[in-house]
Design a protein that fits this description.
Blueprint (H helix, E strand, L loop, with lengths): L1 H11 L16 H6 L6 E3 L13 E6 L2 H13 L5 H17 L9 E5 L4 H7 L3 H15 L4 E3 L3 E3 L11 H8 L3 E3 L3 H5 L3 E8 L4 H12 L4 E9 L8
Parallel strand pairs: 2-8, 3-4, 3-7, 7-8
Antiparallel strand pairs: 1-2, 5-6
InterPro entries: ComF/GntX_DNA_util-trans, PRTase-like
Protein name: ComF family protein
Amino acid sequence: MRGWWRELAGLVLPADCAGCGAARSLLCGACREVLDGAGAGPVRPARGGAGGALPPVFAAARYEGPVRAVVLAHKERGALPLAGPLGGALAAAVSAARAAGGGGGAGELALVPVPSARRTLRARGHDPARRLALAASRRLRGAGEPARVAPVLRLRRQVADQAGLGARERRENLAGALEVCPDGVRLAAGARIVVVDDVVTTGATLAEAARALGASGLWAQAAAVVAAPPGSFTRS
């Protein structure tokens, strides 16, 4: 019920811009522009956070100002219609990965969202990463790029909230926490895998996702996110 009510409320109730607060606009033109993916490119997460398993990572926008506000509004406050523009940004990051060779060139893409803990999903009332992956796959297909969502990862043990943890603590918190679900290999079969999430900071989550996929014989050829810290972009 909670997720259904959020969907309805987000569609029919007037709202101010989630990025800058402009009146009666879910997302104003200026804030949509910073999520258009024009600056999508490779990023290098914080040093020491990911270990050796991190695939090439691509982001669409810098995690600051309006972008940060929009991401948090979608993830933490249930502003579900924001999945559209955020998914578009994620699609741009996926396309940048493919153009750079990280998506494996031609062929269907399998977007593998990073899973959240069940208690976190209950608290939020929705699954942000999966919702963005679905929006991104629709955008990619609309642009003629074959893509589908493959939710093949799950948590195999409890983890602490990552907020407030340093790079080493995040890596230790997540070590061995993910696994491929029983039918996961079949779900991802024949596709080129890109791990997706909303934000990357240290890269620990993406690295653990890639490790878990590799343990089941699957290869994450790239990772793509909506946003990354400004200093992590490797080109301007």
